[in-house]
Amino acid sequence: MGRNDQLKATIAAGDRTKVLRPLPEVLTRHMTDDGDIDLDGMALRLVDEIALTAYELPHYMPVAAAPRLFRVAVSAGDEGDRTRLLWVGEDDGGEAVRRVAAALDGMDVEAVAGALPHSLDMFVTDDEVVLLLTSDHLRGLTEFSTREQWRCLKVATALSSLIQLTSALIHLHDAGFCLGGVLPEQLLLSPGEPHLIVGHLGQLLPLELMTRVQAADMLRKDIQSVGQLLLECVTGGPIEERVADFERVLDDAQVLVDSGLALPGLAQVAVATLTHEAPFAYAGAPDLLAGLLQMRAEMTVSLEFRCGLASTAGNFPMRRTDQDSCGVTETRVIYHGIAQHLGFYCVADGVGGEDHGERASQVAVASSIKAFHKALESYPFDVLRTNVSVVARSVVKVAAAELAIVGEADPDENRGATTFTGAVIVGDRLGLGHVGDSRAYLIRDGEITSLTRDHTLASMKLALGEMTGRRAHESSDDERRISRYLGTGNETPMSWIDAFDPRLFPHLVRPRGWVPNGQPSEAPAGIASLRRGHKESPTVEQPVRAASENITRDLTSERPEGPGSDWAHRSGVHVFNADRELESRSAFLDLLPGDGILLMSDGLYGELDDEQIGRIIEEVQDPQECAHRLLDESLKGLSMDNVTVVMIRAHQGTASLRV
Amino acid sequence: MHPFDLYPSRRDEAFLEPEPERLQGWDVPDPLDLALPDPLPALIELDVIRGGTTTGTVFAIRGPAVTVGRYTPATGPVDIDLGVLQEHERIRIGLPHLRVGRDMDGWWIEAMTMYYPTYLNGESLAVGGARLQDGSLLVVGDVQFRVAFTARADRPIGTPRPPGPCLRLKRDGAPSSITVPLNRNEVTIGRSSPHTGAVDVDLSALPDAERVHVGRRHARFWLDGGVWRVAPLGRSPVYLNRGAPIEEPVDLATGDEVGLGNVLFMFVESLPSAGVTARRAVGTGAL
């Protein structure tokens, strides 16, 4: 049995105490072409290395003769402000170990028996930073990383690892040690886990033995190496030639866009670690940590949305055209350093002979999406978020105006009309603009709620008390005729466009003053800028601004001012009631992770009842699959109508680079 | 209370819009201050009652003779358009439904439709009119109103007549201070857009409830031998003095009411109380 086999056998037996720790550089050097490790040629060197490490570098880890395991855990956080050090290993360990403990002043120290500490692992978990002094080097054999693997790592994982490494660096620096730089080869990664194990910190250097200049240089090297690691992972290639790019960022922000690095946080870390300006940017590891956390915040949305679309003409033999249209547009912005989702989703069900209906629904969808993009360009995120319902209705209004233009330009070719249900999601808020008999459902905790009411004759009769709720379901075709629509004849007035009305759904609405994830709640700025004509007419500017301040206050106060408020008089004819505007602006729904939103044309709910729809949505999690399933199920009947579905799901956000 | 009673009627939406034209990709200049609220005070307020209480959704009467009802292109303009109510409320509202006016003895009310119910304090108005009192309960179709006289109800005032030739915008039965000057030989009026081209007078800045009735290229006013004339430019209806939509050019005289859809204008010549001769003289002289 050769040494190699012996080693393997030992590994297999799990007897770790007898196996010596190979250093990662050594491992890399000894990798054969097929990735296997030639352990034979290595073992001898290992002994030498260890001897060197253990005895010839006295400031590193002068170890006692007996093998021991020391585990130093620095757990950050929960117990007050003091960081707590967990010491696992015999208390009669080497002098340097005590020095580390002493330097990390005031921490609890525990010790258990263990193996010879001949290297230091920084072993970081989600809630604690562990410095692992161990001879458990098998990890190094099974989970190691080359530079390439590091480059292929998901940026979010790498970033999270680097944040933990940086936290560890802060502790080390505070304790009077530094690493003098970390190379990707030194990183031992556990695949699939966000944990980073830094192997071979043989260069754990005490700062007190250096001159001040040397020490500053070494600390800088630590910080710089983290920046290098980050950039290597993000760019997926060597960063040496890119440093010049980052230098240019200082002069020209366009470089950011050119290099595809749209995250301000990433650029900041890059510039502050790699360029010649670096010494002036980050004073130390805490600054670096702040930069990394900022970048992670920019990559993380609190709520992520995924959606699926599907549409069919239905299987009724006499109906061959799909007059429905649907559309989706999504993007992200970074606001207050946090990535935010912006999305517009809509369903339009065209009516009208020949292809008039089809054209009407297409025009409505296309123009509303254009309008939404325009809204994104025109208004900052906080204004959009505060006025999400106003935005949703205005987008529908634009679709109405465009249809009227089309109708007026060519009345003979455009006689169609369309229903329209559009959902605007800004951050975690949903606003609706709704005309006609398409519907928006909310699926929360397995319960289905219709967020819209149909604008049909049946629903009118229901409101007039001429029809009971049960009969509304089995209403005739005549009663299902729509009473509101976006038409090509007359432009649909704003008053026809419904919003989400929170008063009808008290169980869905959070109490006032609720702040989602500590984000800025109500943004007072910019409301006035949504108003028409107030820039051009200084005479009304003053009351309008006063009014908006009034409203902003009202949003947080318990009782909104009534119709008799001062503002109602000042703002004149067309506002009868200050309360109205308040309602319209607070007419949004706060979305939660796990929520589903379903937009559909009447073809779907005509075929499937709410229970069936709810069951399918529960069963199929993926939104696109879910949309297809809903369509398939509706086609099992003789679906007389076109069916169109837009399914949106909200998820707890994860970090990703998609910006 | 029925849940639908909770839905607000949205007559006030003009104030809320983030400028649809801006979202469409162009800006709306408002040199005529069309978006300004009307300075004329209300004479009578009709406050919608839902679920037994007044809602604060108020329709104001500002002139001494108004029609109330719904506007449709076929039936022509009304002064106070109740079409902005919910559809279950407006389904039994006539087009027009009733008239409210003022004479020497005070305010009167008269039903204009036989088909839909009109009650004042429980009395049907189907035959003949009645005197209108402060605090009355008015039922129009399926909608109930509380009639409230304001302090101005007994002494209506107008705004000073502007120098002509111009069009004064009428709101809620009274000519407002908003005027469209006719300061060229020929003026096209409508709503400018990149698709349909620009018009001389762009009414896009009007509040939404009024704007939707205005076509993109709606009407043409021009001076023809000293007389201002009007004609429609497309299919959007132009009404003269509440008649049928005009199709041929029509001469205008001071006091004529021109309806572009349901947006009503009062035509004003240059000189007050001018006869035909004076009108001619001013028409040529002004230009």
Uncertain runs of chain B with pLDDT below 50, 5 residues or more? Answer: 1-17, 272-287
Instruction: Please report the first level of CATH classification, the CATH class of the largest domain in chain B.
Output: Mainly Beta
**CATH-assigned fold name of the largest domain in chain A:** Phosphatase 2c, domain 1
Mean pLDDT of chain A: 64
Number of strands of chain A: 19
Strand order of the largest sheet of chain B: 2-1-11-10-7-8
CATH architecture of the largest domain in chain A: 4-Layer Sandwich
What fraction strand of chain A?
Answer: 15-25%
Q: Unreliable segments of chain A (pLDDT under 50, ≥5 consecutive)?
A: 6-145, 190-202, 512-582
Label the structural class of chain B. mainly beta
Question: Strand-residue fraction of chain B?
Answer: 35-45%
CATH level-two architecture of the largest domain in chain B: Sandwich
Largest sheet of chain A: 6 strands, antiparallel
Strand order of the largest sheet of chain A: 2-1-4-3-7-6
Helix-and-strand structural type of chain A: alpha+beta
First-last Cα distance of chain A: 56 Å
Envelope shape of chain A: elongated
Overall pLDDT level of chain B: 79
Evaluate the radius of gyration of chain B: 20 Å
Give a description of the structure.
By secondary structure, chain A is of the alpha+beta class. Chain A folds into five domains: 1-56, no CATH class; 64-136, no CATH class; 144-299, Transferase(Phosphotransferase) domain 1 (Transferase(Phosphotransferase), domain 1, Orthogonal Bundle); 303-501 and 587-652, Phosphatase 2c, domain 1 (4-Layer Sandwich); 510-515 and 522-583, no CATH class. Chain A is 40% helix and 17% strand. In chain A, the strands form four sheets. In chain A, strands 2-1-4-3-7-6 form a six-stranded antiparallel β-sheet. In chain A, strands 10, 11, 12, 13, 16 and 17 form a six-stranded antiparallel β-sheet that branches. Chain A has a five-stranded antiparallel β-sheet with strand order 9-19-18-14-15. In chain A, strand 14 (439-444) and strand 15 (447-450) form a beta hairpin. The longest helix of chain A has 24 residues, at 212-235. The radius of gyration of chain A is 32 Å and the shape is elongated. The two termini of chain A are 56 Å apart. Residues 6-145, 190-202 and 512-582 of chain A have low confidence and may be disordered. By secondary structure, chain B is mainly beta. Chain B folds into two domains: 41-149, Tumour Suppressor Smad4, CATH 2.60.200.20; 166-286, Tumour Suppressor Smad4 (Sandwich), CATH 2.60.200.20. Chain B is built from four helices and 21 strands. Chain B has helices at 20-24, 87-90, 208-211, 276-286; strands at 44-50, 53-61, 65-69, 80-81, 98-103, 106-111, 118-120, 123-124, 129-131, 137-140, 143-149, 166-171, 174-181, 186-190, 201-202, 217-224, 227-232, 238-240, 250-251, 257-260, 263-268. In chain B, the strands form four sheets. In chain B, strands 2-1-11-10-7-8 form a six-stranded antiparallel β-sheet, with no helix packed on it. In chain B, strands 4-3-5-6-9 form a five-stranded mixed β-sheet, with no helix packed on it. A five-stranded antiparallel β-sheet of chain B has the order 13-12-21-20-18, with no helix packed on it. In chain B, a hairpin with a 2-residue loop joins strand 12 (166-171) and strand 13. Chain B is globular and about 55 Å long. Mean pLDDT of chain B is 79; it is low at 1-17 and 272-287. Chains A and B meet through helix 14, helix 16, helix 17 and helix 21 of A and helix 1, strand 2 and helix 3 of B.
